[in-house]
Design goal:
The complex is a heterotrimer.
Chain A (H helix, E strand, L loop, with lengths): L1 H4 L1 H31 L1 H13 L1 H31 L16 H4 L1 H29 L8 H9 L3 H28 L7 H29 L2
Helix pairs in contact in A: 2-3, 2-4, 2-8, 2-9, 4-6, 6-8, 8-9
Chain B lengths: L1 E9 L8 E10 L5 H14 L21 E3 L2 E2 L21 E6 L7 E3 L2 E2 L2 H8 L22 H11 L6 H5 L6 H12 L2 H4 L2 H14 L10 H5 L7 H16 L1
Parallel strand pairs in B: 1-5
Antiparallel strand pairs in B: 1-2, 3-4, 3-5, 6-7
Helix pairs in contact in B: 2-7, 3-5, 5-7, 5-9, 7-9
Chain C lengths: L14 H8 L5 H4 L3 E5 L3 H13 L2 E5 L17 E2 L11 H11 L6 H20 L25 E2 L5 H18 L3 E4 L2 E9 L2 E9 L5 E5 L2 E4 L20 H8 L4 E2 L4 E7 L22 E5 L2 H8 L13 E2 L1 H5 L9 H13 L11 E4 L1 H14 L7 H27 L8 E10 L2 E2 L12 E3 L17 H21 L13 H18 L7 H15 L6 H21 L11 H25 L23 H4 L1 E6 L8 E6 L14
Parallel strand pairs in C: 1-2, 1-9, 2-5, 9-17
Antiparallel strand pairs in C: 3-4, 6-7, 7-8, 10-16, 10-18, 11-15, 12-13, 12-14, 14-15, 18-19
Helix pairs in contact in C: 3-6, 3-13, 4-5, 5-13, 11-12, 15-16, 15-17, 16-17
The chains are: A mainly alpha, B alpha+beta, C alpha+beta.
Chain lengths: ~220, ~250, ~675
């Protein structure tokens, strides 16, 4: 209980939920990238993910909780941090001692959260609707078409691209930072930072690539 | 010789509203320390019948940790690994405007002008920043427990903290993690301190939270601005110690 | 009243042990009924507060800083001596005792110094148990280094921040007791007056510096641990707030002030850079282990250097005067502080000073860099004739040893000491003189004690490096907490002292009147104006060398400066607010009185000893000459209304174990 009530405990939970979301992001990316080279494989995996009871009734709720927790706690902490300096500086040179990304996690977080809203509206809501509200017949081959369909609109692709830039920024600080939060700062930290840089560039670019790929090849 | 414009936070007491005031300084020697420049300003203000600027300072050699100014948006000013008293005017240029504010945090309320109350740091130490050994001198011989040099050196590096509060002042969240972790680390690294490590970290962190400091978001600003170069490693160590202590305790 | 030093009878080595067994004790139950006030939180005050609280007394501790951790003990760099003999180089309690007496030029009290040497080893044990991170060797055991004026390695250290680590250790012990409620800590409080009831110290009037309110605090005993008075010189290595006020207030209430003229001028400080200078920065004495001190041999070279036409590094070896090595071949650059300081002054007075003001000498590491570089090259099997490589390797060694000091120098002077020699000049550093105390550390006011630098007892006329930390902690941890029981044993039935007593009322009224007089004075000059003037008189006439004429002038000048101060000082603001200028005014007022007594004492002591050099008393070669026949005593001054009227009491110093000899470092 002290864990969730104390500053360090909360920081730890932020780190752990963040790392969990990174794992999710990785598998999400791994699945999506298959859509670039194999429609069949993509459909197969999507169908599995969408209908496996373990994924649907265990992993999916955990994921939802994880997301909810991560951003709710993010807001709680930000509010608390904001209050811990009620009187602000007239002149504050934040850039002199800390990178922009680390100081603006709340901003990148909000952008990602908004994107998440759009994303859920695009994919998850229709999916839930399809499966549980209207209870339409199982069609293991519909996923790819739906995906491609979403990326027809250039505005949407633009929004996706922008959002992924912010995701990259969020990851750039958050990934390595979560290791510090769980108490890891040693000779491996350099390697973790390198992995962070690679991950925060490759994965968002990969997602953007997928969107652009389908946008450009759809016609 | 330089001419400077100073913008300084003036606040008569803890309850007063306070505002920035502008003062002109002529003929400032680049060899002066920042605080000597402030001394000259105060002499001039007294001559003019204006209340001099109250600021904390004592040893003026960068070790007591009493001086505490936020200069041009940075704790202890633009130079690195120095306190305000070691900052010299040669770091500024003729014609510069220098903004001087107190260290700001909810846990560091302003007393007057640039003077703030940092007794929250004392209270954190009182909550557990010690080894519970009595001071009779009848302990075992100092060489009875050898300590690996590497650990002893790391403990020293952590113990070099001067408690000035620059970490809090510079942190965008006004977090005191670097300060607290330095003390926790010093003891955690030494066999003498390990005995009560669990209670220490829990109590000190608890007190830190009660004082109203913000949360650490690993921006690393504290490490950069720390006049003694206290490492972020200490924060990671405290996180570890805390996690272990919470699970155990 | 005759001075009674209360030195226990018996052989020197047994005195302390026997004394501890014979003095009165207060039972644990009764300690709860007794209050003790401690003023100051340096090594002595913090350690005393912690131990007194540990023993069960109710302690109230005061410091003027915003936290007890800021006391100026924190700035001590080099180390702390202890006769542990871990290095097996023949050290012993006796040798530490002997070195301290000799270093103090035979003007300290034998019994006190022996006790200091005895408890020195406990200090190290205690500090290690508290988690003080002393330097260690690769085997995990404690490391030692050597300091000026001794022939063994007995100095324990924590890089160049030993004072900081020891003080934080004592502060942590205090914090533990504050947490337990046994110490009540008053930060940002200044002691303004001692309250004496029926001839006994029974409390103080303190001023809350944040709101200016005067507070009455009572106790059964008052301990003064407020440090030294080096700031009487305005420029010194002391902190800006270091002051004599607590010690001076008790002096004015009846405590004798001993040997005020014994001041240590430290040879290795960063020279004054200009008119605006507010304080001086010390460079640890440990630098003299590797640095060679010199000035040019020829005056034309000096001129060229001052005008910037010649770089010191360009000067040939034969044109340099390594004057310490020349005059003192046996100890060379490692002569004691007083000797090194006077030698630097002698060269600069002759016109050989190397900076613009003519008050600086060189401290050169080039030779050490070469020596270490060659050694390293040899060890690593590299080319010993590769000049660039040797230099780099040598600089690395120097960096590892003194890196933080070199960095500090570079920040202040803006020159790179790895490439060009440092410039140094002596500066006021430590005051051996202070409040007179007996063997129990009690002043001549019953119930009022003085410990650490505030008292006079252990260093005689000159303090050896790394001995101040030892004394502060010895007094605070291991001496005072026991000896104070002897006095307090009579107070177990007294009960709490009432702060409504007329003595408290009177003391508070006098402080109030002084504070109001300052802010209502409406004068013309700031407090610093007077402090600087006082400092100049002190430095010019009571500094490294003193003579009858100068001292007489100083006495007159200080007196008239003091009168001018009360007439014309300008203190802004009011008494009821945070007012640093007002606090400063009260401190300078006391310095203006002490300064006069200082000069009077220096005049009276017509001999040269340790840090006190009278031009009338020197050998034909210009070395200090003691006059043991006439001056083997402690001068204890009793206040009689004003400094000029102070009455001298002499405490004869008897040396039972030690043969008094001429100090020679040749």
């Amino acid at each position: 209980m002290t864990l969730i009530a104390s500053s360090i405990g909360r920081k730890l939970t932020m780190a752990l939920s963040g790392l969990f979301l990174i794992v999710f992001l990785t598998q999400h990316f791994a699945i999506n990238i298959t859509s670039v080279f194999s429609e069949t494989l993509f459909n197969e995996i999507s169908h599995f993910m969408g209908n496996n009871p373990l994924v649907q009734y265990v992993f999916q709720p955990i994921l939802i909780l994880g997301v909810l927790f991560h951003f709710t706690m993010g807001f709680v902490l930000e509010l608390q941090n904001w209050k811990s300096r009620e009187h602000k500086y007239k002149s504050y040179k934040g850039g002199a001692n800390a990178p922009w990304v680390s100081r603006n996690m709340i901003l990148s977080g909000i952008v990602i959260l908004s994107f998440l809203g759009l994303h859920l509206y695009d994919f998850w809501v229709p999916e839930m609707n399809y499966k549980y509200v209207e209870v339409l017949p199982l069609d293991p081959n519909r996923y790819f078409e739906e995906l491609v369909h979403r990326f027809e609109n250039p505005v949407r692709v633009g929004i996706y691209t922008l959002s992924f830039v912010f995701l990259a920024l969020h990851l750039y600080h958050g990934f390595a930072s979560s290791f510090q939060s769980v108490g890891l700062n040693n000779k491996y930290s350099k390697a973790i930072k390198s992995i962070t840089v690679a991950f925060s560039i490759v994965v968002p670019i990969g997602f953007v690539f997928i969107a652009l790929f389908h946008h450009l090849t759809a016609f | 010789m330089m001419n400077l414009t100073l913008k300084i936070w003036r606040q008569a007491n803890a309850n007063a509203k306070g505002k920035m005031e502008t003062y002109q300084m002529q003929e400032v020697s680049p060899d002066m320390s920042f605080l000597e420049m402030m001394d000259v300003l105060n002499e001039e203000l007294i001559d003019k019948g204006i209340d001099p600027v109250a600021f904390d300072h004592d040893c003026r050699e960068g070790i007591c940790g009493m001086c505490s100014m936020f200069i041009n948006g940075e704790a202890h000013g633009p130079d690195r690994l120095v306190t305000t008293c070691q900052l010299h005017m040669r770091k500024f240029k003729d014609g510069d405007t220098i903004t001087i504010e107190p260290f700001r945090a909810k846990a560091f309320p302003v007393i007057k002008d640039l003077t703030v109350d940092r007794s929250s740091f004392d209270r954190i130490q009182q909550a557990g920043g010690f080894v519970s050994v009595n001071t009779s001198g009848n302990t075992q011989d100092a060489n009875a427990i050898p300590i690996e040099k590497h650990d002893a050196d790391k403990a020293f590096d952590a113990a070099a903290c001067i408690g000035c509060g620059a970490c809090v002042a510079t942190c965008k969240n006004a977090s005191a993690m670097l300060f607290v972790s330095a003390k926790v680390s010093q003891y955690a690294l030494l066999p003498q301190g390990k005995v009560e490590a669990t209670d220490r970290v829990l109590n000190m962190v608890n007190q830190m939270d009660e004082e109203g400091f913000g949360n650490c978001t690993n921006t690393g600003a504290c490490e950069v601005e720390c006049p003694k170069g206290i490492s972020l490693e200490n924060i990671a160590r405290m996180n570890r110690e805390y996690l272990y202590a919470s699970l155990k305790g | 009243m005759a001075l009674d030093s209360k030195i226990p009878k018996g052989p020197l080595a047994d005195k302390w042990t026997k004394h501890k067994s014979n003095i009165n004790l207060v039972s644990p139950a009764n300690k709860r009924l007794i209050d003790v006030i401690v003023v100051g939180t340096g090594l002595a005050g913090a350690s005393a507060s912690a131990t007194l609280a540990e023993l069960g007394y109710n302690v109230k501790t005061f410091c003027f800083q915003d936290s007890p951790r800021r006391a100026h003990s924190i700035a001590a760099q080099g180390g702390i001596n202890a006769a542990k003999n871990y290095q097996g180089d023949g050290d012993s309690t006796y040798r530490l005792f002997y070195d301290t007496i000799k270093g103090g030029d035979y003007r300290s009290r034998e019994a006190n110094v022996h006790r200091l040497a005895e408890v020195s080893t406990n200090i190290i044990d205690q500090c290690v148990a508290q988690g003080v991170p002393f330097a260690r060797d690769y085997g995990g055991l404690l490391d030692n280094r050597s300091f000026g004026g001794v022939l063994v390695s007995r100095t324990f250290y924590a890089k160049g921040q030993t004072g900081q680590q020891l003080l934080l250790g004592a502060y942590s012990a205090m914090n533990r007791q504050i947490g337990r409620g046994k110490i009540k800590m008053y930060n940002r409080h200044e002691m303004m007056e001692l309250v004496v009831v029926d001839g006994k110290a029974r409390g103080i009037i303190a001023r809350n510096l944040v709101n200016g309110k005067l507070e009455r605090h009572s106790a059964h005993a008052v301990v003064i641990a407020s440090g030294g008075y080096g700031n009487v010189f305005f420029l010194s290595t002391n902190a800006m707030g270091s002051n004599v006020s607590a010690a001076w207030k008790i002096h004015k209430k009846g405590a004798h002030f001993a040997n005020p003229c014994f001041t240590q001028i430290h040879p290795t400080c960063i020279p004054v850079s200009g008119e605006h200078q507010s304080k001086l920065t010390l460079m640890s004495e440990s630098l003299r282990n590797d640095g060679r001190i010199w000035v040019p041999k020829k005056l034309e070279d000096v001129k060229a250097i001052r005008e910037g036409r010649l770089k010191p590094t360009d000067l040939k070896e034969e044109d340099r005067d390594y004057y310490l090595e020349r005059r003192y071949p046996a100890f060379g650059n490692l002569v004691p502080r007083d000797v090194a300081s006077r030698a630097a002054k002698e060269r600069c007075d002759e016109g050989y000073g190397v900076n613009k003001t003519g008050e600086a000498v060189y401290l050169d590491f080039a030779a050490a860099i070469q020596r270490y570089g060659k050694e390293q090259a040899h060890v690593k099997g590299l080319d010993e004739n590769d000049a660039a490589l040797v230099k780099k390797l040598g600089q690395d060694v120097i960096r590892a040893k003194y890196g933080n000091l070199f960095q500090m120098y570079e920040k202040i002077v803006d020159q790179n000491p790895y490439e060009t020699p440092m410039m140094i000049y002596p500066a006021v550093h430590y005051t051996m003189g202070g409040v007179w105390v007996d063997y129990n550390l009690m002043t001549s006011i019953p119930g009022c004690y003085a410990i650490g630098e505030a008292n006079f007892s252990d260093h005689g006329a000159n303090r050896l490096g790394a001995s101040a930390l030892m004394q502060g902690l010895a007094d605070g941890y291991f001496v005072l907490p026991y000896t104070i029981g002897d006095y307090l044993a009579d107070d177990i039935r007294t009960g709490t002292i009432d702060t409504d007593l007329p003595e408290f009322e009177k003391a508070e009224a006098s402080v109030k009147a002084q504070m109001e007089a300052f802010v209502n004075n409406d004068g013309t000059h700031t407090v610093d104006y007077y402090h600087r003037k006082l400092g100049k008189i002190m430095w010019d006439k009571c500094g490294m060398s003193r003579n009858t004429k100068g001292l007489n002038e100083a006495i007159t000048e200080i007196k008239s400066l003091r009168e001018d101060f009360y007439k014309n000082v300008k203190v802004p603001g009011s008494t009821g607010e945070f007012n640093p200028e007002l606090a400063k005014a009260a401190r300078v007022a006391d310095f203006l009185e002490l300064g006069e007594l200082f000069a009077k004492d220096a005049l009276e002591r017509n001999e040269s000893c340790g840090g006190h050099f009278r031009e009338e008393s020197q050998t034909p070669e210009g070395e200090a000459m003691r006059d043991d026949e006439n001056f083997t005593y402690v001068s204890a001054w009793e206040f009689k209304g004003e400094p000029a009227k102070a009455k001298l009491h002499k405490e004869q110093l008897d040396y039972e174990e030690i043969e008094v000899k001429t100090r020679s470092y040749k």
